[in-house]
Every structure is written in C-alpha cells, then in structure tokens.
Amino acid sequence: MRRLLVLAVVVFAAVCAQADPVEFTFLAWNDGNWQNGYPYFVQEIGGPIAALAVMCDDYIHGGEPGDMWDANITNLGPGNITLTRFNNVAGPFALYPLMLYNEAGWLLLQTQDNPMSEWLAINTAAWTIFDPAAPCNSECQVWLAAARNEARLGFPDTDFYKVYIITPVNQHDPDPHGIQEFMYIGEDPRGGPGSATAPEPGTFILMGTGVLAALGRRFWH
After folding, report:
1. Distance (Å, rounded) from C-alpha 53 to C-alpha 221?
2. 89: how many CB neighbours lie within 10 A of its CB?
3. Closest-CA residue to 190 (of 166, 206, 159)
4. Is the pLDDT of residue 96 over 90?
5. Coil, strand or helix: which one is 59?
6. Nearest residue to 73 via CA among 203, 191, 205
7. 176 cis-preceded (ω within 30 degrees of 0)
C-alpha cells in the first residue's frame, strides 16, 4: 500500500509540474517595428534560450520590449486549447475555436518553407483569423484563403505538435494594452513531453483515482 501511495504522489507531482506558468520578457519587435510582424522575440526568464522567435496571433492586444508577464504554454497538437486567449470565440460548431488555432498554426509552419518576404503576409493572415478587422492586403488574403482551404481538407500532413502557444495567465484580459498572445515552433520551455497545456483540476482527480484504481486491483487480487 505504501508503494501505491508513493506512486500516486509522484504521478500527481509530475502533472502539477506541467501546469506551472512560465515567466517571459518581451525582447524586441522584428527590426524594431511591430508592424513588421513575424518574428518578434521573447525570452523565458531564467531559461536556456537567449531569444525565442514568436508570431503574434493577437492583433487586439499590445505589449512592447521590456514587458514581463506570466504565461501558460499550450501545445497545439493534442487540441486542448483550454488556456488560450481565443478558446471562447463563437462559431458554427463546437470545435470552431480549435479550427482557428489550427489555421494560425498551419500558417506559422509555412514560415519554415517560404522566404522571409512572405512572413509579414503570413502573420497578417494569422491576425485576421482571430480579428477580421485587422488589415489584410491581397497577399495576406492569399495566405488566409490557403489556410482555410487546408482546414477544409483536414490539414493533411501537418504536425501541430511542433506548435506552441504562449498565453498570458489572464487569458481573456479585456485591456487592449495587455500583453498579446504568441505562437512559436519548438519545444515546451519547461521540458515536459507531449502537451504543455495545464490540466484542469478535474484531470488531476481523474488521473489520481485512475492510477489508484488500476494499481489497487493489482494489489488486492
């Protein structure tokens, strides 16, 4: 029984570790101007990476070099966008907000295969996905249409596990001067495997009771 309880505590502690927010500082815009779009640069305070290249998906909010904030990290792959900024966007079906994030994630991934001359149009298309009032020229419209077409096809051969979302802990902050949300290609700065989305309290309970039940059956039979 002691071994069972120790294992349950270890599992619970491991899950809790994944839930910790990360503190960031905003380093710089692209070439000193926010209108230049991707990439902006942020840094995890105390982290191993000097500068993390990020794409802003949030035209509504602000932020500038020198800002510091706590953020939750979400891996787009598992499709759990509980802690993201636009997870409550109204749409025609239940998974509509996830589709929008997948469109934006697909756009971000296109920067790996397209020249820098296309990156501003790609970023403005991502802005437009979540804010139709954002400026979107003809080149942006081409990328926006491409992302929506990929959505209709189900995003074939797209690895969303490469995409992470940095969301301020005050995820639905109505203040337009509050820090924006970012997306990047890479790994969870906390070093955890798989989804970096923090589980909800109910998940802790289910995981704990599931482990206890499974091991309990083995212990008593």
Report:
1. 53
2. 15
3. 166
4. yes
5. coil
6. 191
7. no
